[in-house]
Amino acid sequence: MTVLLAFLLSNPTILAVGAGMIGAAGAWMHGRLTGAKAERLNQIATGARPQPKSEQIGDAVAGRVRGTLAAIHGANPTAQ
Asked: pTM of the entire structure?
């Protein structure tokens, strides 16, 4: 086990690949957090509020459509 660990830690190629994987994972997490923060700030700026699950279910049962389709096509996007 010690020999394997010594080989892995002394091989520059394996160290570079490991560092690259850790760097990519860190950049991905940073991007996710930054995007989520920007979306929250955008919703606050536009006055939008998160829709509770109960409203989402009620809208689905009643056939109401929310979002851009409702704004473009009216209350029922299928009736044209």
From this structure: 0.51
